[in-house]
């Protein structure tokens, strides 16, 4: 059965995120096995999974605010530092009249 509609949170994932999810599923959710495949430590894989979870949560939580979601994704992908992201979101919310 082919996927006809892709969920919003999936659209925002990068190719490396999809690859990680595939390896995670094929390893039956074993972070130890995924760490072995990537030849990294368990804490490194745990951190990668935590960031991926945050990306998905950002997509779900900010569906009504695409700009905020974009800024948060850039910060999670280390393309924008967190202080700058917080400042941009804060200023954006001021223009929208939201605290």
Give an overview of the whole structure.
- The chain contains six helices and no strands.
- The chain has helices at residues 8-11, 15-26, 31-38, 42-61, 66-76, 82-96.
- Helix 3 crosses helix 4 (42-61), helix 4 (42-61) packs antiparallel against helix 5 (66-76) and helix 5 (66-76) runs antiparallel to helix 6.
- The longest helix has 20 residues, at 42-61.
- The relative contact order is 0.10.
- The mean pLDDT is 86.
Describe the structure in brief.
This protein is mainly alpha-helical and about 100 residues long.
Topology of helices and strands:
Layout: H1 8-11, H2 15-26, H3 31-38, H4 42-61, H5 66-76, H6 82-96
Helix pairs in contact: 3-4, 4-5, 5-6
CATH architecture of the largest domain: Orthogonal Bundle
Stretches with pLDDT under 50, minimum 5 residues: none
Total strand segments: 0
Please write the CATH class name of the largest domain.
Answer: Mainly Alpha
Structural class: mainly alpha
Provide the CATH topology of the largest domain: Arc Repressor Mutant, subunit A
> How many DSSP H or I helices?
6
Helix-strand topology string: HHHHHH
Shape by Cα distribution? flat
The helix content, as a percent range, equals over 70%
Tell me the fraction of residues in β-strands, as a range: under 5%
What distance separates the N and C termini?
45 Å
List keywords for this structure.
99 residues; mainly alpha; Arc Repressor Mutant, subunit A; 6 helices; flat
């Amino acid at each position: 059965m082919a996927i006809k509609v892709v969920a919003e949170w999936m659209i925002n994932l990068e190719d490396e995120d999809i690859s990680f999810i595939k390896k995670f599923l094929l390893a039956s959710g074993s972070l130890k096995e995924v760490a072995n495949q990537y030849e990294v430590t368990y804490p490194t894989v745990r951190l990668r999974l935590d960031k991926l979870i945050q990306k998905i949560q950002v997509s779900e939580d900010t569906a009504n605010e695409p700009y905020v979601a974009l800024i948060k994704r850039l910060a999670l992908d280390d393309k924008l530092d967190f202080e700058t992201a917080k400042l941009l979101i804060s200023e954006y919310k001021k223009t929208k009249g939201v605290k």
